[in-house]
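User: Structure please.
Assistant: Input sequence and predicted structure:
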Amino acid sequence: MRFIADFHIHSRYARACSKNLTLENIAAWSRIKGINCISCADFTYPGWFKEISEKLEETLPGLYQLKKPHQQESDLILSSLAPSLQKNTQYFLLSTEVSCIYSKGGKVRRVHVLLFAPSIEIVSRINKKISDMGGNLSSDGRPILGIDVKELTKAVLEISSDCFIVPAHAWTPWFAVFGSKSGFDTLEECFDELTPYITAIETGLSSDPLMNWGYSKLNTITLLSNSDAHSLQKIGREANVFEGDVFSYATIIDAIRAGKKGSTHMRLDYTIEFFPEEGMYHIDGHRVCNFSCEPEHTKKLGGICPICKKQLTIGVLSRIAELSDQKKELQRERNIGYKSIVPLQEIIAQCLGIGVSSKKVHDLYVKLINRFGDEFHILLDVAPDDFLSCAPEELCNGIKNMRNGNVSITPGYDGTYGKVEVCTKKKKKQDTLFQ
């Protein structure tokens, strides 16, 4: 049975996030997207943790659902958007993102990590421990902690060995374990003797598995992909697809740790990816000067912007190239697969030639969801020609192009999202593992 999970989103209490990110809305939009298991998000924030404790109940070991009154509210939200969709209850998994800013090795480090916990009781103990270590949990849904990430990892694992720690968006320049601005060259430099407990990383929007396969230090590391959603519509823009017959916190974590080998009751089958060029830190550049360049050009420039003469922001592509030490294509069979997608609303907007926020895009999106089912089913499974009965031919062609990797791409850089076009006549073939 297919089981799709997004382990990294945010709540309305996180900075620069939508106020519509309530538990009821998150559950409804997870159903629209086709996600079976979604992060509860931001469990360190006191007000949000109170809501989690009051609104969720454990229905499978380590997995939670909305209690009946709140599930009914979520069902009403879903009915207003997609009345034809079956009102399945979504599972919540207890995970959150924290930001550690500290000094190590003579350098200021800024590392974001995801914390996974098996129960609300364990979350309560984690929150107390972080507070005792000096963390101000009331400052933001994603708190900034002046704590060495190794010490945080040690403290969390001492509370429960069932907890799980994953470096978030591992290659992002400013806030990541391998980031060009404040990261490390290896997991060992960051986590020291606790490195064996780090068995997965989150690749982030600006890289995909193929890029990561070039770095031999990750050969035994499972590559996860999550949305890091700051709004409901962004939920599931990246996700993880499992196959299994027993669903629980433990079987999910076991499957992640096992990677390609799989575990007894569940295996991680593949990840759903952004085209990495669409990520806002894919190549190098300087946003204020509207300048970007590929890694080889950056080397010729000495890392300096030719316009303002200040340092360029070195993107994920360059950083991975710097550390890569093996032929990435040879690692394909050793790793789980991936499929690159473009969100359905973006495809519709491109095919209609209008803005993604327009009413026409919304109306056709809702029509397709009601006609064919959730967004992932549409993007991954439905035969493109089946759309011809209720959508323009351009949409059919756009989905075909996405699945085949026939896309035209303008890469993102220095905090600016790239653009992936699926409905243009001129296409650039991209590597894809789409089946």
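The first helix runs from residue 23 to 33.
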